[in-house]
Amino acid sequence: MPPQVLAALSRQVISHRSQAFADLMESVRTRLCKVVGARELPVVLTSSGTGGLEACCANFTGPQGRVLLLTAGYYGDLFGRIAANHARSIDTLRAEPGSCIDVGRLETALQATQYDAVLVTHSESSTGVLNPLQAIAAAVRRYSSALLLVDGASSVAIADVAFDAWGLDVLVTGTQKGLMAPPGLSVVFMSGAARERLGQSRSPSHYFDLALALDRAKTHATAFTPAVNLVYGLDAALEILLGEGMAQVVRRHEAAASVCQRILQEAGLRLFARPECRAPGITSVCVPAGVLAENAQVFLEHEEGIPLSIGFDAWKSSVLRIGHMGWMAVDDVAAAARCIARLDWDAMKPVQAGAA
Ligand SMILES: *Cc1c(COP(=O)(O)O)cnc(C)c1O
Q1: FRET label pair with 90: which of 34, 112, 173, 232, CA 20 to 30 Å apart?
Q2: How many Cβ atoms sit within 10 Å of the Cβ of residue 342?
Q3: In the chain, alpha helices (H)
Q4: Cα 279 to ligand 1 centroid, rounded to whole Å
Q5: pLDDT > 90? residue 351
Q6: What pairs with residue 66 in β-bridges?
Q7: So where are the chain's domains?
Q8: Which atom of ligand 1 is nearest to the CA of 152?
Q9: Whether pTM exceeds 0.70
């Protein structure tokens, strides 16, 4: 995290019922609007990003709801699992691993069935894929009256997101990725149509009752005791982001992604995500045949000081995932990619039993 954020976190705790806290929250909510191009102020909840998804599903998918889930991997499936606790029925449109949602297939599904909500993960962190959110939103607006609910955990303040202009209804993110603050807060943006829908049914969740959160937010208060110091940290991080300018923040992430991709490909490695849908915040790369991604992960962390992740599910041991989001410089990402490009892959193979 930036040092200004660390310093802000260590400020004295204030009462969350004080005017000073309301002023802080007003600053945070106003700045968050500028990050995603939203006119209406979001609510800030004390939970990780998944709590924001829970709030979204509890308030917008059930219990009569007919839901269309668009999924391109683990996080899309997670959104669907959360919605399954609330919705009446869920249909799934699935992209091949490494691919993004096909808008033509979405249009066909929307024309065939009237849905109450469409769920999509903007940046699918498990595969490094960016879904074409603007085109998805246009299709939903054109063919359906469904609310479009978006997991923007690894795209807000990383990829281009235009909440009002694209016609999104609910957008959820956490604070620990593009927003460069500590984990522990989630942010939920809601359109006018989403706010109207809120009034129509009672939330089954009290902690994640978004009508209650919005009511308290009229005075920039929260329904329950928030993580006050995380709000200080988020405000400091937003000041830095808006100082850089959101267009430049997105360009920096795109530059990091493209230099990372280029260096890995020049070293003969194959990228997991298809070229037309690579996420700007995370690069997934296949390790050479016979290599264990876990071995490369341990080596890079311990010998080179580069923490990264491995794959998910069936690709767990054959993929490395390099996160380049939030407080990072393009040159540092390039240096890390060069380290991976230079790896002695034979040394990353599993140790053979009985080998000398
Ligand atoms: C990180 C992430 C989440 C989960 O967020 P937590 O803060 O860990 O609860 C959800 N969706 C996507 C796409 C993510 O990258």
Answers
A1: 173
A2: 10
A3: 3-9, 19-36, 49-60, 74-84, 103-112, 133-143, 163-166, 192-198, 210-217, 228-244, 246-266, 293-304, 330-341
A4: 15
A5: no
A6: 89
A7: 3-244, 246-348
A8: 13
A9: yes
Nearest residue by C-alpha to atom 5 in ligand 1: 49
The Å distance, Cα 347 to ligand 1 centre, comes to 33
Just give the CATH number of 3-244: 3.40.640.10
Residue 201: the pLDDT is: 81
Distance 19 CA to ligand 1 centre (A): 32
Note the pLDDT tens digit of each residue in 226-284.
999 999 999 999 999 999 999 999 999 999 999 999 999 999 999 999 999 999 999 99
Query: Does the C-beta of 223 come closer than 6 Å to ligand 1?
Result: no
C-alpha 79 to ligand 1 mean position (Å): 10
Enter the CATH code of domain 246-348: 3.90.1150.10
Q: Whose CA is nearest to atom 2 of ligand 1?
A: 153
